[in-house]
Amino acid sequence: MNLDFNQIVPYIPFILEGIVATLKFVSISIIVGFILGTLLAICKITKVPLLKWIADAYTSIFRGTPLILQLMIIYFAVPQLTGLDITAFVSAVLAFGLNSAAYVSEIIRAGIMAVDKGQTEAAEALGVPYKSMMLNIILPQAFKNILPALMNEFITLTKESAIVSTIGYLDLMRRAQIVGADIYRNFEPLLFAGLIYWVMVFILTKIGGLVERRMRQSD
User: Fold this and answer.
1) CATH superfamily of 7-217
2) What global pTM score does this model have?
3) Where along the chain do its domains lie?
4) What are φ and ψ of residue 102, in 5° steps?
5) Which of 16, 123, 155, 156 could lock 128 by a disulfide, CB 3.0 to 4.6 Å apart?
6) Interval 66-108: pLDDT, tens
7) What PANTHER family is this protein classified in (predicted)?
8) Alpha carbon 153 to chain centroid distance?
9) 176 near 187, Cβ under 8 Å?
10) What is the DSSP letter of 6?
11) Which of 55, 52, 163, 151 is closest to 102 using CA atoms?
């Protein structure tokens, strides 16, 4: 096998900088997806038909089209229509955040529906406002039930982040491709990038397991 990992040694610092770039936009995307997903989930269980229809339509669109297509539309098509200059970073955050929100909304909705209806009935009987009931009673219980599913969504988001390399964002994947083009060897830098992705996902999985155990112990 024609392998020589010594050639990528000088480029290791350059590739490692991609970890920060990747985690930066993924972290913001997760926050955007979580906040928007929570709002969409509440809209889906509301008694207002219009809000429910909007939330369902949003989920259908973003779950029914490829993430890379959404990324391309935001980065290439939106500037064409609006004249706005959208950077690769902003495009990545918007595409991943909006896409994640559709999946997170379904996860949270399922978690809310799994909470005992007696909790809602008791809160309504005591005259607890809907907003306070959701924030202090229903959502905390729902989050405990859906934490594994949320962590799985965040892990998937981290792995799929590699597609931002298609718009030139200098994430981990893009830097590995640049190194491969520079030394005319692709296997070594790509394998090194793959190892880093695996380590990041492994750490996220461990953190998720730790948080889940802590929450169970607090019950």
Assistant:
1) MetI-like (1.10.3720.10)
2) 0.86
3) 7-217
4) -65, -45
5) 123
6) 999 999 999 999 999 998 889 999 999 999 999 999 999 999 8
7) GLUTAMINE TRANSPORT SYSTEM PERMEASE PROTEIN GLNP (PTHR30614:SF20), MEMBRANE COMPONENT OF AMINO ACID ABC TRANSPORTER (PTHR30614)
8) 6
9) no
10) G
11) 55
